[in-house]
Amino acid sequence: MSRGYGTRPTMKDVAVEAGVGLKTVSRVVNGESGVASATAERVRAAIDRLGFRRNDSARLLRTGRTASIALLLEDIGDPFSSALSRAVEGVAAEHGCLLFTGSSAEDQRRERDLALAFCARRVDGLIVVPTGDDHRYLLPESAAGTPVVFLDRPAAAIEADAVLSDNAGGARTGVAHLIRHGHRRIGFIGDLARIHTSAERLRGYRRAMADAALPVDERWIDTGPTDAARVTAAVDRLTRGAAPVTALLTANNRITLAVLHHLPSDGPRPALVGFDDLELADLLTPGLTVVAQDPAALGAAAARTLFERLAGDTGAARRIEIPTRLIPRGSGEIGPRAG
Amino acid sequence: MSRGYGTRPTMKDVAVEAGVGLKTVSRVVNGESGVASATAERVRAAIDRLGFRRNDSARLLRTGRTASIALLLEDIGDPFSSALSRAVEGVAAEHGCLLFTGSSAEDQRRERDLALAFCARRVDGLIVVPTGDDHRYLLPESAAGTPVVFLDRPAAAIEADAVLSDNAGGARTGVAHLIRHGHRRIGFIGDLARIHTSAERLRGYRRAMADAALPVDERWIDTGPTDAARVTAAVDRLTRGAAPVTALLTANNRITLAVLHHLPSDGPRPALVGFDDLELADLLTPGLTVVAQDPAALGAAAARTLFERLAGDTGAARRIEIPTRLIPRGSGEIGPRAG
DNA sequence: CTGAAAGCGCTTACAG
DNA sequence: CTGAAAGCGCTTACAG
Fold this sequence. Notes:
Two copies of one chain form a homodimer. By secondary structure, chain A is of the alpha/beta class. Chain A folds into three domains: 11-54, lambda repressor-like DNA-binding domains (434 Repressor (Amino-terminal Domain), Orthogonal Bundle), CATH 1.10.260.40; 66-165 and 295-323, 3-Layer(aba) Sandwich (Rossmann fold); 167-293 and 326-333, Rossmann fold (3-Layer(aba) Sandwich), CATH 3.40.50. The first copy, chain A, contains twelve helices and twelve strands. Chain A has a six-stranded parallel sheet with strand order 2-1-3-4-5-11, with helices on both faces. Chain A has a six-stranded mixed sheet with strand order 7-6-8-9-10-12, sandwiched between helices. In chain A, helix 2 (22-29) packs across helix 3 (37-50), helix 5 (79-94) packs parallel to helix 12 (295-310) and helix 8 runs parallel beside helix 9 (196-211). Chain A is elongated. The N and C termini of chain A lie far apart (85 Å). The mean pLDDT of chain A is 93. Strand 2 (98-103) of chain A pairs antiparallel with strand 2 (98-103) of chain B, so a sheet runs across the interface. The structure holds a DNA duplex.
């Protein structure tokens, strides 16, 4: 006995239909004890006749929580983001929470608008892969009881929980690997210097060079936007310019992709270690050596932290670092060319 | 003047603080006209002092909509799903809607539980990449006014809007391409036969063979789960068995990946056309020829359809088919081996 | 065992 | 220009 399009029966309708009070319907719907079985049966019959389904949004308004969390990504469409989402979704599901997702598209304003829109919905908590350089706008929200955990990059201008990859350590390991294979002149192609992950990876590069007592020529370092044109120009300058390098560390997957598309498919190539793993990387010739992040661990740690905050943990802001892993596949084991 | 942790000020608090009525606060918050500027100023000052932010969930309860839609995917972590998400998110944002996402993990029960959980939240609409074989459970929801659009695969056992790739046409084009390159014995490695996309792609395969008046040996067709072990066994049987083929159509990206990992990297290989594009496919040796789907168009069309339903379109169920595109890159242009 | 009243935080419809 | 009352669909706290 479904009703007209767009009008859903309410508990009140069920109560009238069953000839009982509203509270009795609520008891039956929520499986509370203390309802005579005959009464409960009448209520259930009314529910079926009317096709009643409880409105959880209304229930949650009264309850004070929304049983939902939000994940604000850079771009849900990229593989790293979607791996984070999967991990966060898994933990949210364990806690009976539904998940909002949204993408900032690296736009500070959009990040802020989306984050505040989620807070206005009163999500129980928020996980943010931040792009902005000032997150003070979230302070009132977290003070009011909406915990915020930062993921992949730390918060700017506020103290907050953050779950990050060991960016410096990963880059250091990657560069040390190249040094071990005989390279002395190693180039670094990175993202914009203002981006935390990029800066950390550059720090790891410098650290590895210093560990090996190798000088760094600043012309070997190229940071900027990750569009193919700029990356391609960087490759040419670094490999064929005045101070040529014999190996490259590319500091994220977009840069690595652009470099791979630009390198000659035949003839000598610089050694290459990419930050971030890529599907099919093992099937390239040579295979692509990478410093792989662990997005599943990153996402899960962020979600766990969020739920611990929701459970009442009011300790100091935490910073969790997830290890990276060097995966040698060929491109990083090419030796320096003679000369 | 923020209040204690976990207690947010309400409009009522603001009204008291400003010494005005509740409705006046509502007017100011919503930018309605007809408030004396001095009064509005007092209200704004109170809002700032208290750190008031409107609770959108409460507002939406009164309004009757939730300004949110849900996207139920197979697995948010895979590239196809995440490309769909990006497209859906873009259209949702145009309509001021937030997006819930969830993954069924190919589990019928989880699909149902999640879909109904979203409906219980009263999302304005639902987009489902279905995995179940009976969607009658959604009938009461759509009858009550929650439109549902199916994406990538059609609904089972109910009439509903669906946005699909031209699976049969794509496979037909791929196989015709192999035939044009001289192949007569072509294998098909597909997903479980019960899955709509798999069945359609097989239909396209048969159609192309029939178009060219080529006989099909049923031993050339292998369908089943997409785990590497089964796919690997299929490759061996098809290429080295009693009725060997000279070319393969792999009917989705997981299968293609398993096949690529199994084929010898040197020595003769069967020609290969994969359904679904893969990142780096162009950098393999040989490049991977694919029948590419257009997830951006699929997701956008599904979201547009959903919003048209929300705008009042009550026409018959629609079925939208998005074209696929053959991208030759080398593996599909290998000729049949002598013999 | 059962239900009427009040309330979650807003908006709607109406009256001054 | 302003606000008191009723209501969105539930749950909570209480009384019978």
